[in-house]
Design goal:
about 25% strand; disordered C terminus; about 700 residues; alpha+beta
């Protein structure tokens, strides 16, 4: 689509009762990001109340019409996804605005490939909209869903704001609290270039004041605000068929101040009601000694076979999904399920040819008299999904009008590399979506809810805690990705004795397993921290995932190394992981930029003080402009002599420091104590907790504001 164009959703798909909107962008440094937000507006173009504003502190609508799903890995890196149940949107909501904003003075011009996509309830992408000319804006309205004669349409907007999240929210009628100013508001005000009749900033105090201009009628000074125009976001939807216009920064309008009334500082919009999470410190046990075991809702001691584990795991998961709406909705919203009353079933018999089929489970969601149904096929331990079994469920779902087939296993699905290949009968009018969940992802979502984001009440938190305990028990069989595959040992041996040839298909299998492992490490670390942890893809955007993995397989054959990068929210750099199969060592490292001000010796001393609790064998390397390597040493040696980090005779400008830890690599392909998978997971967690967690959070670099030209 192009800016200003619009389309009826019903013309694109028959399954648009629920849709998923994805907002994406790239960063040349791998560190840039933005926050998504959604506003529900009435016929006047304003929110009905502050609860109609959904963002990171208020991600889910009570009626299920809106749910911010967070980041999802894609072949281009990642994108933020938002689920909309259009059948649940209240009748007095006229349009839905989808936006994103940057923070700390950052601008969208520092990002690349700013885009929006929209998919129907089956997950099929219906449209894509790319936004250009975003250099000067810190917030963007990507698009909007709006009603026309009871029909939902989408408009590609691409409208920019210079005043960030606070300005955008205020423009649509969201009240801003007065007691805590936000970084977004301050950054947006500081970088906004004043024009005649608009608010400016005093250079020293930072207090917002209005430019005074003579009134045409009286000649007296009058406080003026930015006028609302037909092209501005506050003026309501543009006429259908509007031609594209250049993206320009629109300052947020301000109310004129009363005489003598002090200006109030903008603040973060009000947050949602506090929810229940687990206490940070466990209660003291009343057990007489450590041998006593706490009674559990879901026992695992009686599980003797894979069949027992699959049956128990399915029943435990589906029952908790039905009883904890936040959790059930979280797992199904990304699959196109509406918000509504959920019921779950196990061991359901369905006719299929001469003999009935019994899927492991069924999920049904009722909304406004309509049913959404998904069949569930579960595997535990190392058991793989069987193509013929999944194919049969796809055929049953298509014949009976079901919406999805969901597979659950310890494996991790990769973009462009399905776990099972099924044939889709394109002659059928009804589409069935095939979706996959890893047990690691299920555990991650449970962790995020009960440890960080919260649920509705203490009983729900307890149920999720019991589920998490069950999934993490060694006998449950729900441990996530835990086997590097049969190609691991031959490839490792081939690299060791230099007999692995370019083009060996086993190298590609190892690369795919490595990518699955890294995605699982991100899920585990993100669940513990309550922060976004995502793998970084350095390949050129739009590159085919298969071609990218083939290139990595060639590199593995050439140099014997597996490499990956993790972006952790709130850290000053990208965490790099390298598994050197030639030496049998794992390296975890992080490059941090040099401060913008101060002296090199002060930088070195402060870094050593910051790492006071880090391991003594931590390697520190100085990064020097134009040099392949700079001074380096272990933390133990550098503690008494931080000056050893400085280049001799001041040669070369210091651009940063690289911190690295080395450890032995597990050799076996499994998840045992001595296995490769466990060693990678331990290395990442050790590096984060002992090194990265102690570093200062990054300070956003502010874009210098242009000098204001006096007017009048």
């Amino acid at each position: 689509m192009i800016k200003g164009s619009n389309v009826a959703l019903a013309a694109l798909s028959e399954d648009v009762g629920s849709v998923i909107v994805g907002l994406g962008w790239g960063s040349p440094t791998g560190e840039g990001d933005a926050d998504v937000s959604v506003l529900l507006l009435d016929a006047d173009g304003k929110v009905r109340s502050d609860t109609d504003f959904y963002f990171y502190n208020n991600p889910v609508a009570a009626d299920g019409s809106v749910q911010l799903l967070g980041k999802t890995p894609t072949e281009d890196g990642s994108e933020d996804r938002i689920s909309f149940d259009l059948t649940a949107v209240p009748a007095d909501v006229d349009r839905i605005v989808v936006a994103a904003s940057r923070y700390g003075g950052a601008r969208f011009g520092e990002l690349e490939d700013v885009r929006l996509s929209l998919a129907d309830g089956t997950g099929e992408e219906l449209l894509r909209f790319t936004i250009d000319d975003v250099d000067s804006v810190s917030a963007i309205i990507f698009g909007e869903l709006y009603r026309r004669a009871e029909e939902w349409k989408f408009r590609a907007v691409g409208q920019g704001y210079a005043s960030g999240l606070a300005g955008l929210a205020t423009d649509f009628g969201v009240d801003i609290e007065d007691d805590a100013a936000t970084v977004e508001a301050e950054a947006g005000q500081a970088d906004l270039e004043p024009e005649a009749g608009q608010a400016a900033l005093e250079p020293e105090s930072g207090t917002a004041v209005a430019e005074e201009q003579p009134s045409a009628a009286t000649g007296d000074p009058a406080h003026l605000t930015a006028p609302a125009t037909a092209s501005g976001p506050a003026a309501g939807p543009a006429a259908e068929g509007t031609s594209p216009e250049p993206l320009t920064a629109v300052p947020s309008p301000r109310r004129p101040a009363e005489d003598g009334e002090p200006q109030k500082r903008a603040a973060r919009p009000r947050t949602a009601k506090k929810k229940v999470t687990l206490p940070k410190v466990a209660r003291k046990s009343l057990a007489e000694n450590e041998s006593w075991r706490e009674a559990r809702l879901f026992p695992v001691s009686a599980l003797k076979s894979d069949r027992d584990r699959e049956t128990r795991a399915t029943s435990v998961l589906l029952s908790v999904m039905a009883q904890v709406p936040e959790f059930g909705r979280r797992l199904t919203a990304a699959f196109g399920a509406p918000a509504g009353r959920m019921e779950t079933f196990t061991e359901v018999s369905l006719p299929h040819g001469d003999s009935p089929r019994r899927p492991d489970g069924v999920i049904r969601v009722e909304r406004a008299g309509k049913l959404w149904t998904a069949l569930v096929e579960t595997k535990t331990n190392g058991n793989a999904l069987r193509t013929e079994q999944v194919q049969a469920y796809m055929d049953i779902a298509a014949r009976r009008g079901y919406e999805a087939v969901i597979t659950l296993s310890n494996d991790v699905a990769l973009e462009g590399s399905p776990l099972v290949d099924v044939k889709i009968d394109k002659r059928r009018k009804h589409k069935v979506a095939l979706r996959h969940l890893s047990w690691a992802e299920v555990a991650h979502q449970a962790q995020m809810l009960i440890r960080h984001e919260g649920v509705g009440n203490a009983a729900h938190a307890w149920l999720l805690q019991e589920l998490l305990h069950y999934l993490q028990h060694e006998n449950s069989g729900c441990h996530g990705f835990q086997n590097m595959g049969p190609a691991w040992v031959p490839v490792r041996n081939g690299i060791d004795d230099e007999t692995l040839c370019q083009g060996d298909p086993r190298a590609l299998e190892v690369v795919q397993s490595w990518e699955r492992l890294i995605r699982q490490v991100c899920l585990g670390l993100g669940g513990e921290l309550g922060q976004k942890v995502l793998p970084v893809q350095r390949a050129k955007r739009g590159t085919d995932p298969g071609a990218r993995r083939s290139l990595l397989a060639e590199q593995l054959c050439a140099d014997g190394r597996l490499e990956a990068e993790l972006r952790i929210e709130g850290t000053p750099g990208v965490l790099a992981v390298t598994a050197d199969l030639r030496t049998g060592r794992l390296r975890t490292s992080l490059a941090i930029p040099a401060p913008e001000q101060g002296y090199p010796l002060s930088w070195a001393k402060r870094l050593i003080r910051t790492l006071a609790e880090a391991p003594a064998d931590l390697h520190i390397e100085t990064l020097v402009e134009g040099e392949t390597s700079g001074p380096r040493g272990t933390l133990e040696r550098l503690r008494p002599e931080p000056a050893d980090l400085l280049p001799k005779d001041g040669a070369g400008r210091i651009t940063g420091f690289r911190l690295s830890l080395l450890k032995g690599m597990g050799s076996s392909r499994g998840n045992a104590e001595t296995g490769f998978i466990r060693s990678v997971d331990d290395a990442v967690h050790r590096f984060y907790t002992t090194v990265v967690a102690h570093l200062d959070r990054p300070t956003p670099r502010r874009t210098p504001s242009r000098e204001a030209t006096p007017t009048g």
